[in-house]
User: What shape does this take?
Amino acid sequence: MRHVNRCETARAGGILMPSPALEFHDVLDLIDSHSHLDATEFNTDRDGVLLRAREAGVCRQIVPAIAFASFPALRDLCARESGLFPAYGLHPMYLPVHAPEHLLELSHWIEREKPVAVGECGLDFFVPDLDPDAQRSYFRRQLEIARDFSLPVILHARRALDEVIATIRRIGNLRGVVHSFSGSLEQARLLWKYGFLIGLGGPLTYPRARRLRAIVATMPLEFLLLETDSPDQPLRGHQGARNEPSRLAQVCTCVAELREVEPAQIATQTTANAQRLFALPASG
Ligand SMILES: [Zn+2]
Assistant: This one.
């Protein structure tokens, strides 16, 4: 099948020659560094979503967990489909379903399943009624787990970036990504200093995201990951719709336009960044 061949060629590290029938973005080798492909929103057409992603050059996706109950289905999905890599963690927005014993289970799960990262975890001070101290406790423990297993960590930080930065600095010896970064250049620089990349997706495509777009226009590319956060954070032109990983090609094009370079350059660098952070095999 066409889409499978394209992904395999891309993962073999070969340079793909565009055929006249293909759009330029089809030949890019992209990694969606943050996709919730296991979400129920995809239950009716997950195969089609995966197919469209591969057609758009998005042959690999990092799929972070949100809660302990979702771990088995996430593992099975990633085992069944090539190019899907799970991360396991307890997401702050799902605090009401977490229990302290899930932290111990998380450690066991990581030991057994050897995921590419710990996450999604972090702090969310935007959503009301999520007890901040309980969030802090789960967050700190997961950072310690990531450090102890020498795994990167996938972070969620909403209205909480300064505290997230202070926490990773205090715990130390960490690396990872702050996904859907929306902070200042100063905050981004601190993250880079402490071993973190920033993940960017749909929000970048909106002209009103001036601060973010200014950061992306000049930042060192080695600290950038591309993501969709599917099914959330739809791109400009798709407001209100379910997001999906195939749209990562448009995020890549957006970054390229902001930096006035070719999309292929952005794809090559950000794919290398994701491979390095998550220790993915070069051949996919
Ligand atoms: Zn997420």
